[in-house]
Amino acid sequence: MDKRDIKYLEPRKTILEQIRSGLFKVILFLIIFLTIFLFLIPGFLSLVLGHDLEKIEDNKLALENIDIGDEENAFFDLEKIQEVYRGNDTSGGRIFKYLDGEDWDDTDVAEILDINKRELRYFDNAAEKDKFLLPALAEPYEGFEKVYPLGEIRAISQVATLRALNSLRNGQDEQAFKEALNVIKVGNLIEESQIHMVGYLVGTAIRKRGLEAMQKIINETDVSIYRFQYYYDFLEDTKREINTTPLKIEYLNRKTRLKNITNGQEDMPGYEGKKAYILQNDFYFQPNQTLNIFKERYQDLISYWQKDCSVAAEKKSPTIMIDSFFEVPKLYFTRNVVGKFYANYGVVAINNVKNKYCQNQVLVNGLELMLEIKAHYLRNGELPELLADLDIIYEESGKIDVFSGLDFEYNKEEKILTSVGMDHELGTEDDIVFDLNFGQEEEEDAEKIEE
Question: Is the full-model pTM beyond 0.70?
Fold first, then answer.
């Protein structure tokens, strides 16, 4: 037999090789299947489950139609303020030292006040008005992006506060009170108006400056005790429920931006360019579902803002979050996943905004109590042993620490009145402390000299 006729049999595959070969085929099949599946499933999900909500009813988050005459509106006085001069230090840092009572320079302060005489006149004219409204917010609207600049208004309020402290240093106590009250009034007008979030924060900052100046003036003043009633009534009149309009405007801005994204007039953050195709999938992006998330969020925030300052904010989880890499695949089957991620984008630290309102409420209540304590001091020659020993002259209620919902902490020996602050704990950095020294150190020093 010719050797060439002999057929050589291929060696049989081992069991391990057979398993490898079969496993490879299975993996290859799964890859092809999953590729086709993943390619087709978005369209399937969009077709079957891509039904968005009907139109969202959000009338409760609409703005009011407000009509204020130009002559009544403090805005048109403040609008005239151009460039505010804040001293030789172009950054304005020096003026803050003066406001804190550090490195006071009579010449520099006099120059600042003289150069800003015209702007201060506009500021005082605004303080004579009872209303403030940005013209752009006078009528209901669907949202806007442009924020009216209020930087110069905030700057002139600092100069106005400096003017009050300068009057105090020059022994013009009643003038100092009047000038500080003007600062509080302007801040209050802005804070309680129909205003965007940035403007609201400017209003709270201006009001806070004026209230802090009042604390120094009350502490050092020699003005007649009979004037205290007027100052007390003024402070009492500044008390208002928290203004929730900024939250409504935040919602309307998000609503407008969402509408622009849906219409292709604006890019969604994280989905620019080629990634924008996913916005066309009715399963992964549902505008009304997304808007409903915003609506519920801002309604919850309004509800929280309207609660007492002693109520801590609830910690809420983001609308969607990934705790590990293995959870990523679930996003593929998550309805409105793009909208949920967008709902987490650019959220304002709203709780901190409310805290600024609460801090000002503490300052108002603390100043009212300071007036009571100083009246007691002037009548009796010493501080009361306890707050309960005060002969309440002006009013019984309203002098609590709003952060605790209880009385202020009073210490006669240390001559201080203390609020627990935002963290609701006494003895921490955010405590708000009122100095009740009332010039007693000077008296004690004079007694020591005589001895």
Answer: yes
